[in-house]
Amino acid sequence: xxxxxxxxxxxxxxxxxxxxxxxxxxxxxxxxxxxxxxxxxxxxxxxxxxxxxxxxxxxxxxxxxxxxxxxxxxxxxxxxxxxxxxxxxxxxxxxxxxxxxxxxxxxxxxxxxxxxxxxxxxxxxxxxxxxxxxxxxxxxxxxxxxxxxxxxxxxxxxxxxxxxxxxxxxxxxxxxxxxxxxxxxxxxxxxxxxxxxxxxxxxxxxxxxxxxxxxxxxxxxxxxxxxxxxxxxxxxxxxxxxxxxxxxxxx
Length: 251
Prior knowledge:
TIM Barrel, 10 helices, alpha/beta, globular
């Protein structure tokens, strides 16, 4: 049985790690390279770095940051934010990233997923999907959650898989930063309907939430930010809790 992954997420703005609630009210959470080193040593399985202002401000993710992180950590890490071409990905992978994450650019140009998977392999390509419920339906949002679309979460996820993505990072905007738990019903539907790994994001507040998302949400990995950044949950303790619930993890 594949082990479940615990993934700290570092949202980057102007070279610093930040964290907000429902995608707004950002506060500083520290130096991303230092945090990456701490998480790597603490037992994180992977890391995700999202330059949350890159798409909005039309600038590229800093390859220099990727290089600095690669020199520090020995676990896989994914980089996203402002990636819109094969050339962008080439630079990031050459600088040490293991995977890249595309979001808004994939919706605007779905062929990008095919092109990236064809050149670099599906294992390198994560498609991030930010969605919230509107009149009972999960609708995809772009540009850090600021721009609503008519795209249905589940239809888009299926298309993403068909185009060659290796995994999906689903963030529930309704749950993000609330610490009330993950969107397990939507996650379970995604996991049932798709054959690629689903990463749960948005809503982690305590260790039970992680247990629930692996059991009820059928998630393959769980991503969180503030509970790790502000030391509300220690990764080693979390993994012990998961193991106590017979959830396979790497200790």
